[in-house]
Amino acid sequence: MSDKELASAGYSDRICFNYMDFLSASCKKRWSFVDAIYGVMPIFGMVTRKPGNPQRAPAERLKELALQIISTQVSDEINIARLITLAEQQQIDQLDILLPYPLSTQQLATIQQEYRKPLALTQHDDRLSIHFLTAAH
Questions:
Q1: In angstroms, rounded to a whole number, what is the distance separating the alpha carbons of residues 98 and 124?
Q2: What is the CA angle 68-43-78, rounded to 5?
């Protein structure tokens, strides 16, 4: 799977992820015991290994880290909240996630509850746009 399929940098600080490609890559990944713990147990869900090169573009670092925490063993809402947290940690201002289906109002509320910080979620069909409301992240 090419890097372009998993993440692509758009204009300014906007990054677009194809969630289905991440899930597919997660299914094909050879999981170590540590990977399984990170992916399944919520308390360890955001513990990631450092990406190899800190000079890499934010989209590349985010993609590498996302592959460590995306798991088919947890709900889409938890996976998306984890992606949002990683984007914030990488100082990405806006994130678009292409989903296989539009999310329900309840799913959007669950994502906001899991993330626990102010953010704007807007949905256009199967694209979820995330905009961080706090300037300092």
A1: 10
A2: 60
Q: Going by C-beta distance under 8 Å and a sequence separation of 6 or more, which residues neighbour residue 28?
A: none
Sequence-separated (6 or more) residues with CB below 8 Å from residue 75: 110
- Residue pointed to by tokens 């953010």: 119
CA distances from 107 to 2, 5, 132 (A): 29, 25, 18
pLDDT confidence band for 137 (50 / 70 / 90): very low
Separation between Cα atoms, residue 89 and residue 60, nearest integer Å: 13
How does pLDDT run across 56-101, given as a tens digit for each residue?
777 788 888 888 888 878 899 999 999 999 888 888 888 999 999 9
Burial class (CB in 10 A: 0-12, 13-18, 19+), 8: middle
Task: Identify the sign of the CA torsion 120, 114, 27, 69.
Answer: positive
